[in-house]
Amino acid sequence: MIDLFYVLLTITIILLILKLFFSFAYFYKIDKLEKTEIDEKKYTVLQPILSGDPRLEEDLKANLKNTTDMKFIWLVDKSDKVAINTVENILKDKNYSNRIEVYYLDDVPQELNPKIFKLAQVVDKIKTDYSIILDDDAVIDRKKLDELSVYEKDKSEWIVTGIPFNYNIKGFYSKLISAFINSNSIFSYFSMSFLKENKTINGMFYILRTDILKKIFSF
């Protein structure tokens, strides 16, 4: 049994080292690619919004502050009074209101996926070339978005996923969970990206051409 333990431990360590190597190789490859600043007018951010997060207004405003010409489509439940009030407070700022479209939607039927249900109702409203699906508690790193210039040249069907990074977390146990999530990305998404074997996306943040998104929702 002890011998088996050491064999399994050795295999685990080797796999972790390989994953770490693949992750750094992936970052090196991305850094070497030629990038240009993206045209924000070609992008629309779609955000289903729900109350309950104490940082909701702060996070929504952060994405507006981090961008200049990007359009936003916000999807709010008609019954969610707190979310409605939050959105209305933000719309009072003339610097942001001209970039935001708000759709107030009926409650999601119990048997349906809430995000898919909401997106399906507004996908035809998107007028830009590219769509960003973003959770209401996620904040965009604007500098990283310029990496999309690499994919804009690709005419095949593609989807780019953002990787979550938790910050400003309070509480010991919350920090432990945050550290696990942040470090786990290195050993999962990035290593598999190097091998081109990713089978999943991060549903909190993904980007694709709008024509592909509309094609998906046409079924």
TrEMBL record:
It comes from the Bacteria. GO terms for molecular function: ceramide glucosyltransferase activity. GO terms for biological process: glucosylceramide biosynthetic process. GO terms for cellular component: membrane. Pathway: Lipid metabolism; sphingolipid metabolism; Sphingolipid metabolism. The keyword Transmembrane applies. Keywords: Glycosyltransferase, Membrane, Transferase, Transmembrane, Transmembrane helix. InterPro entries: Ceramide_glucosylTrfase, Nucleotide-diphossugar_trans. The chain crosses the membrane at residues 6-28. It is found in: Membrane. It is a multi-pass membrane protein. The keyword Transferase applies. This is Ceramide glucosyltransferase. It comes from Fusobacterium periodonticum D10.
